[in-house]
Records
---
Amino acid sequence: MKSHSVLVLGLALAISATLALPVVAQTNAPQSTSSSTALEPLPAPTSTNFWDGDDPNLVNLVTHPFANKKYVQRMTRPIKDRLNELDELTASNTAAIKDVDARAQHGLQLASEKTNLADQHATDATNRAQLAQTAANDASTRVANTEKMIGGLDQYKASSQTEIRFRPGQTELSKAAKDALDQMASPLKDQHSYVIEVRGYSPGSGQGAITASEKISESVVRYLVLTHNIPVYRIYTLSLGNVPAASDDTTKHGARVEVSLLRNDLTAQR
């Protein structure tokens, strides 16, 4: 412990002697002969040496600010202030980055929502276009079917045929004739798209034959209307007198009525 004290004391004496030399030299220097000339005062030296403004002595050497907590705090305060500024700048930049990121995320979300909405509208438009195309195809199909139906309204084909015979001078229907008409007319109840053609033939000549064929045809029509409720507008009557049929000789067969059921082609297709 004594050796350390002697070393510190010696160091202090050496530093004191070194600093005292300039002072002695300045004292012994010759004074200027020109007393009238005023010299500018020398600026105070800045305390940048080891002692930092303290007198170089043993006491100050032992209690130098390097060993003082306040000195350390005073020297490190600018660094702490700069660090605080850096922390504030970092916090400000972080907040700005977060704000920009939040705005970017919000913008992306809005863009995504608008994109989804646009996709939904596009899908709805596609579905509506498909529905419109389907409706147009259905309408076209219905129009084609209607045109086909209209074109085939007057297209009738023979479905069945029966022949009713009469004795000379007779106009009443026999039981066999009624049975034949019943067999033809019974299935026609509540049906449509059909017509019944009644053609009357009678032997003889001239207007007499025509009148006779008209009477027997009226007997057939009257039975169909009254017994089977066949509408009159669906029955077409032809009184042909003694006109021969396609390969027939009316004079050989006597009076008769040919009844033909004609159906429309459209009904046959359904």
---
Amino acid sequence: MTKINNYIYLSIVFFLFSCGTGEYFGFEEKKIKLKGKRVALLKEDSKAILNSKIISETKLEGKKEVLSWEQSHNGPSHLSINFIAESNFVKFKYITSGSGEKKSSRILSQPLIFNNFIYYLDAAANVIAFNLEKKKNIWKKNISKKNDNNHNLGGGLAIGNNKLIVNSPYGEILALNLNNGEVLWKKSIDIPIRSAPTISDDKVFSLTVENRLLVHSLDSGELLWEHEGLFNNTTLINSPKIAVDQNIVVVPYSNGDFFGLSLTNGKVIWSNSFIDIEVKETTNVFTDIDANPVIKNDILVLSSSIGQTISVNKKTGSQFWIKNIYSDQTPAINGNSIFIINNNEEIINLDLLNGSTRWVLELSQDLSKNNKNIWLAPVLINDKLIVIGGDKKMLIIDPFKGKIEKITNLPNLPSTSPFVVNSNVYLMFKNGDIAKIE
């Protein structure tokens, strides 16, 4: 009798754990599948990539000069510009410095430049305003919370309407006076934010680590609308920024889902996902989308940590093409090309319209200490592709042929990709230094 009872008990326990107890008995809402095509988990194959039919030659847009850098990747759509710069990419001139990275501190956001000031967030949660003409700090404000100032993982900045918006890893969104750092408004949300804010249409878009999008008024800080995705327990440190173009807001979540929302009220226009919900619930695989979405005209390109890069229609979410390319770095999209770095330590040039591969440049292991250090998002400057990272290296690459033209040693490990203002190229390092590349 005892043996029979044990069998019954074990059967009940197995039943409860295999079915999902809360959902089965009605304690949790049944998860509804998102619309859109699901993509199976696939491994990346460079040889298969090369077998794609080449349709067109690489064409870049004309070189442009920018006078300010008010958001990461220079705009809400994250579209790459072919920047004009007066640099031979040889020397590094020290500009200023903040606190460098430690075990529990990371610099994940690019500095900004506006009206001859550099604004940056260092690894000790200090927001610093540095005057480029006077060559000195004008103000510094620490945004960490009392008794909890040793876990500065990310956060970031954006400028709009003469306000410096700060996303804090301590769960706050602040608007600061550009001139003196005075707090104009502050919102406490008690959920860490690791990515920089996106500003568009006088709205501030902030994505928390728990897959919650918050949209505030740039002027008053009033919460205008919000959207929430499914929470994912296994995520990487990085978080992507929100992309905005015209009336479409693209929000990528760490569980692999991504949405097209109305800029006005957050209404879901379309939804899609990299992998099936059943797969996500039964595996511990990282499903993050860590690269920023990039929008050009009606084309939206996203990359995920499961080994997929996808192109969809910005307005409908319908798929144009999909490639077995993993990347957690934002691709550079310019002209008819996508320049992307994959997890095989390769730089790939894809045709924007059909995803066909023009060339694949393999980065030798001696450039990155056997792949110990990562390569950061590529940047187009003076018709050249600039890629930094690895073992303190900067690569100058011919974007038409996929050939390395020059390799320069960096003084330290970089924290973000280079940014260009007034024909000057700047770079921030993990030790907190900011330098001009000459």
---
Amino acid sequence: MWVLTPILPIWSTMPAKVETTAALPGLSPVGGKPVIARFDGGQLSSDGGLLVLREVEQRLDVAGRLAACITDPRDAERVVHGLDEIIRFRLLMIAAGYEDGNDADRLRTDPMFKLAMARLEDEAPLCSQPTVSRLENLPGTRALLRMGRAMVDLYCASFRQVPRRIVLDVDDTFDAVHGEQQLRLFNAHYDEYGFQPIVVFDGEGRFVTAVLRPAKRPSGREIRAFLRRLVRQLRSNWPRVEILLRADSHYCAPEVLRWCRANGIGYLLGVAPTSTLRRHVERLEASTAARFAASGGLDKLRRFAEFYDGAASWDRVERIVARVEAGPDGVDTRFVVTSLPGGSARAIYERQYCQRGQAEICQA
């Protein structure tokens, strides 16, 4: 096999170990650079970006933080791969697009993965798939909770100064599975088996935390328990930080509203449309549709209204902001409930959905 290696910046396909061998002379240059034919290519890898990820992981020590949360039951004298090493290898695998633990059997000898794990090409291979699987089944409930707190601490440590206020964007997402994984559940909406983890980012897009769960809509009690743990850990780092919760309509459960009010958490939550809510905006919907038709239908027309109302399961009425949008496809109305005081209806709504367009403020 011939490996042509132009004298250019280092490729990710360069071998981890280079030995001097005779080169094939007399090849014409390309772009003013000499071309050398060599016969010692050795093992190659297409995952050169791992070396950058290695630097990031070393700085943050993600694997070390998570490993410290797990009790290792193995005999220390017979341990070949430490928990932090196994976790680090698994993290790099996932980051490089290798989601399946079975890939470890092939990647454990990959020169770039070994380099990222601080091993030279001629040193012992990395851990195998059975070792990875044993680790993934090792943590119990308490260890998982400790790992979740460690991730929140890592998020807080990423700030140079304690923020005065943070926004928590909470949502769940469907993750399809293709085997007999634990916690998998059939979801009729997606028509397949999967997970539906809850993920949290802050208002600037930084990852905060996540929890793996079955593919079903979370209940109000489940969401409340999750938020209680998250906020407790955030405030253990930042006791005086102001927190605003932002989420879609199925997080607008009475348990969540009560808990937010009791714990001083601001909220801006979507609300599923009901006939009761729609009665507040019937006239606004009709007038918005008429104005859109009169304008010639070139641009969508948005108008906003606010009022106080509440579902039968709520403890009290809440401030609700409605957005009415008229366009070529008809009239679309959405609602949010908020604890935010003051501000225009449009400003409140756009803080939830960050939408833009032609709009007119209309106080109901």
---
Amino acid sequence: MNSFFDIFNPEWWMNENNNALQMTDAILFLLLAIPVVYLFIFALFSQLKYKNPYPKAAIPHRFLVLFTVLRNGKEVIESINHFIDHQDYPRDRYDIAVAATQLSEEDLNTLLNMPVNIVIPDKEKCSKIYAIQQVMERYNPEDYDMVLVMNCDNQIANDALTKFNNAYWSGCDSIQAHRMTANLNSTISVLSATSEEINNNIFRKAHTKLGFSSALIGSAMAFDFRMFHEIVPSLQGSDLSKAMEMELLQQNVYTEYLDEVICYGRKAEATESYEEQRMGWVNAQWGSTFFALKELPMAFIKGEWDYCNKLFQWMLPSRLLLIALVILCAVGVTLLDWTLCIKWYALVFVLVLAFLLAMPSGTIAAKFWKNIWALPLLIFSSIFSPVKKVVQNK
């Protein structure tokens, strides 16, 4: 047993006879260099200029615009009114449906007097997936051409349905719009908005530039109605975007990204709300990681490269956690043997450069640099979120 406890002695790691430090250093560097290089390559391609390739459609297809709302009826009422008042698409070519859960009587009465179809799920508290499943049961596959999935707080560009219609006419059955943060009035929301824009550039814009499917984000998504009607009943879990991505890629359906179709939503402003949201991401990440480890070998053998890329993407650590791990390893190796640390600081440089390349411009970037002091706190939180999850599950 004495030999086991030797690993807690720094002198044991610096002993060249056992090569423990060199071997551990090499393994950790390889494991962390792979996601860093992956992000850097896509960050480079995110610099390519976006140009919408789709010509004007010959006909206006019929849309079902589906809003999901949990508790906050005031937001969805405002979002629906904004959609109807500002959308430049023919009004007789789209209908609006609302999956309404846990709404007050006042909000329900307001919705009843609006030109929308209201569906109240048979469970008072349910997931977003279950609420959407309840709505789709009310429709037939041939009722519409496309469905647009929205969150209760989303306000989308005036020409959104027109742009979706053009892409659908050209053959796109799955489309993700460019979701952005509307509220930039707190440190947490600014940092979240910056992270979302980096993800938009790396996992959506750059991916489609290289021929891979865009990542879905849970709202501002448009799908072929018949396809969506067939897929929805089989969706499981609480993460709509991951469940849809898995089904679409298994059916070899490509997801397009329309960068110019902006959809605004709200981000958590308080630290407590962000932590709660992050725990939801961690829970989803654990499940998707184990699923990816199981599915990736067979997808690789079959040559399903788009699916392989998505599975590999699900195995990556979060961006904040990756930053924390690389920096911690760089500092740790420096303290143990500075001759091994040069490559670690090079890796830190490449990682920072990748994020700088994918960094949004304009207002979000300006506000980010003013609030960058809080980034170490979020990184610290990202380290302990998985630990917190394990403790809570015990």
